[in-house]
Amino acid sequence: MSFASMSKSVVWAAAAAVCVGAFGSTTYGLGNYDWYGTASSDWTTKANWYPNAPATGGTLAAPANDGNYDLGTSATAESFALTYDPANNTAITDPTYEGGGIFIGQNSAAALDVLSGSLTFEDQQYTSTVGWDGAPGAINVNGGTLTFLSPGGGAGLNFGHSNVANSYTGTVSVTNGTMNVAGGLYFNASYKNNTLTVGQGGLVSASGAGSYLGFGSRIILNGNGVFAQTGTSAVTFENHGGSYAALAYQAGGTGTLSLFDGGASGLSAVETQIATDISGKYFDTVSGTTFTPLTSLSQLSFTQSGNQALITLAAAPVPEPASLGLLAVAGAGMLLLYRRRKMA
Asked: Are 311 and 299 in contact (CB under 8 A)?
């Protein structure tokens, strides 16, 4: 099954070329830190790691020199997620820490929780990935800042395995925190819904050559969550056989899609492209677990902020005063009719 056979829709940006290379070109040949999570979720407990725990804090100059991080390397499922929370773990000596790449979901399901501080992963051989070779993976940011760097080029973070027939699910949730991704996001095609959810107080900022959503992928904006694609970049959606990639707004929420358009003169081009994307069913609203495709550009609101186009759900129309008066009269008439029938 080749991507060449799939239909494509591109959310417009100043430069529409999207880099979909999954791997950087730089190789450092460093060792790995394998997280088994058998004792606790504590980053600093050596019993959770093989062969030993990585450093407990400090900022390393790029490129980082402390190897890659593998989560879920054991065939036995982890008991605890890996947690980075220096605000509540005094053994982490510096709230800003930079390590090598991270691969979540090697042989069993695994998760990374970032609750405070600033944690950075930098590609050293392969692109950091959530939902990798053998199992699903998850990232939860609920406070603090998580950053992915890609010095060798290509996307900063992959979702899911590249083999569609044997795909694994990658899920990321960002609430009351920030995730920065250099090089953009790459969602591999999947029938299992690789998903990025940006919740209340959450910001995901992707820079570089653009982000790519293979079919079955979703970006969900809950509450006032913001997904920003910055720089000369684009977002590309794919579908195959009616299985779509999509961006979904929580019904009634104030979530924002922020796209680089180079300034106010580019706003109309963004609107034109998104109108095409809506007709292709790439934009949804979501209520609970129900996704409903948008049907009209009028369901969205477009504003300008510097070089970014801000796209939100349009406010629900309010009935005009005259209409409200008619409704009140009709209601009074029905009440009078009801009373007359009751008296009869």
From this structure: no
Nearest to 77 by CA among 43, 128, 111: 111
Burial of residue 223, with CB atoms counted within 10 A of its CB: 0-12 exposed, 13-18 middle, 19 or more buried: middle
Positive/negative CA dihedral, 42, 43, 48, 53: negative
300-305: strand order across its sheet = 96-99, 118-122, 145-149, 178-182, 203-207, 226-229, 256-260, 308-313, 300-305
Cβ-Cβ contacts under 8 Å for 279 (sequence gap 6 or more) = none
* Cα 260 from Cα 269, distance rounded (Å): 11
Nearest to 285 by CA among 247, 254, 256, 258: 247
| CA neighbours closer than 13 Å in the CB half-sphere of residue 63 | 18
Distances (CA, A) of 190 to 194, 213, 316: 7, 10, 34
Q: Is 337 left (phi over 0), alpha (psi -120 to 50) or beta?
A: alpha
pTM, full prediction: 0.84
Tell me the per-residue pLDDT of 278-330, one tens digit each, with 9 for 90 and over: 999 999 999 999 999 999 999 999 999 999 999 999 987 666 665 545 444 44
